[in-house]
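Q: Given only this backbone (174 positions), what sequence would you predict?
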């Protein structure tokens, strides 16, 4: 698994959808933007901590410019509205040696099917192979699904409330 830019596995969501979990590619720009359009304002608010619907070209380049070392991004693709489309994504960005910040988004039509959990398993696997020891995330306190995902992922965790968010720290080592 040295070249993560070719990472690809088949998984099945709780709803029965067949998913391809794969590395985000530079040519995914249109699919990524289409996924944003399929995501509710509330879901985007929970992901970006603010009302976001559009992104600058610089932000889009940042999202697509992953090196699979300090910035790893995976997408979940599935049949949606008659097309093979990006229905979710997860990424981590190394913030300091041994630690990375994680983030997830799943379009509303596919929420509740365990896709974030599947993506989480793959990010954990990659992070461990890359020698990371901790994953961190800031989660809005009302984002109960994301908090539950972290609590049930099987990793030791600590939580700290900070204003309107909860800082979650997951340990990848025993």
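A: Predicted residues:
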């Amino acid at each position: 698994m040295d070249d993560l830019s070719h990472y690809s596995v088949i998984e099945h969501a709780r709803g029965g959808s067949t998913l391809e979990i794969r590395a985000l590619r530079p040519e995914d720009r249109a699919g990524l933007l289409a996924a944003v359009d399929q995501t509710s304002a509330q879901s985007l608010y929970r992901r970006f901590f603010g009302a976001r619907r559009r992104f600058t070209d610089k932000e889009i380049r940042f999202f697509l410019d992953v090196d699979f070392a300090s910035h790893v991004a995976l997408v979940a693709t599935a049949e949606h509205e008659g097309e093979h489309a990006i229905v979710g994504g997860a990424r981590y960005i190394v913030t300091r040696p041994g630690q990375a910040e994680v983030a997830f988004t799943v379009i509303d039509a596919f929420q509740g099917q365990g896709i974030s959990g599947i993506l989480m398993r793959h990010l954990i696997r990659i992070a461990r192979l890359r020698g990371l020891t901790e994953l961190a995330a800031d989660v809005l306190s009302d984002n109960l699904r994301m908090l539950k995902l972290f609590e049930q992922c099987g990793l030791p965790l600590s939580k700290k409330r900070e204003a309107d968010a909860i800082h979650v720290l997951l340990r990848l080592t025993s």
